[in-house]
Amino acid sequence: MEKIRIAISGVGNCASSLVQGLEYYRDKRPEDAVGLMHWEIGGYRPFDIEVVAAFDIDERKVGKDVNEAIFELPNCTTVFCENLPKAEVQVQMGRVLDGVAEHMEQHPDQRTFLPSDAPEATREEIVLTLEQSRAEVLINYLPVGSEDAARFYAECALEAGVALINCIPVFIVSDPEFAQRFADKGLPIVGDDIKAQLGATITHRVLTDLFHKRGVKLERTYQLNTGGNTDFLNMLNRSRLTSKKESKTEAVQSVASVRIDDENIHVGPSDYVAWQNDNKVCFLRMEGKLFGDVPMNLELRLSVEDSPNSAGVSIDAIRCAKLALDKGVGGPLLSPSSYFMKHPPEQYTDDEAHTRTEDFIAGRRDV
């Protein structure tokens, strides 16, 4: 198979796990490939994905080979594939805009160091890089709250004729105007806000759907998450958290039998614990009524390494975007978006999203 040529905006922990995974699965057999939902999609295997361009704004990463930059601070995710070969792709200076929260300056170990000798890239420069690298898919891994920066890179993708995977909670794919513009150009898009392979929100959704199917009335619920990576530190600025909280909350509300009153549901990142690094801990509580209005409650603690938990999902999303490109299908990929993302243009139950995505992969459904 030919390679799927991808560009990355934001060379953080999620990008590190993705890039490590592309090499890690190279010598695996399908039966040994733990952690992948699909070994092959449209004939493309995980290692058929190739990074051809990358953008970041930290001097510790800009100018370095992408396979070296993914291990630079403040990245702190698990290293499960060491000694990567050179990618022969340098990380280029991107555009800052709102990609850095002001309060990060108060945390020397986690702050972003803007290069003094590398001016911000213009839109024209980023579009030219995408075109000259012949990138087919741009995957957006910018920090939560990067509303302007995420839209900037979406505009670059449109201008360069590149498909977009939006992994962050900025509503681009679920924005009808953006969706129509990508559809008009025949460019597939998948988003918004990636679901982990087995993370807090997907677990919360599945349990909420189980309550619904078993006739249990869900009355109150919360999801509290702590972590020690840059993303959790970034989200201490509550003004950057609005879309993230909405995305996670609606992901759960959409599968409840009856919409839960706002005061009885809390879903969202809660605090930064530095020593957790990329480990994410979820505390989940659900309260409801069984037969005869008899009360019950459920409490769950989930601990996962945050960034590897999303990488396999990203690999599938990239391959679905490529599949759409090969078919000449543009605009939002509704089925993959619902299966892979928290805030898709259309919400389905996870069972339905899975079935529809399998149909898309098999060619029985266009989007």
Please supply descriptive tags for the structure shown above.
four-stranded mixed beta sheet; globular; alpha/beta; 367 residues; 11 helices; 19% strand; single chain; seven-stranded parallel beta sheet
Per-chain topology:
Elements lengths: L3 E6 L3 H12 L24 E8 L9 H4 L21 E3 L29 H10 L4 E4 L6 H14 L2 E4 L9 H9 L3 E3 L9 H14 L3 E11 L2 H5 L7 H12 L11 E8 L6 E11 L5 E11 L2 H20 L3 E2 L1 H7 L9 H13 L5
Parallel strand pairs: 1-2, 1-4, 2-3, 4-5, 5-6, 6-11, 7-8
Antiparallel strand pairs: 7-9, 9-10
Helix pairs in contact: 1-9, 3-4, 6-8, 10-11
Summed up, what is this model?
By secondary structure, this protein is α/β, with parallel strands linked by helices. The protein is 33% helix and 19% strand. The strands form two sheets. The protein has a seven-stranded parallel sheet, sandwiched between helices.
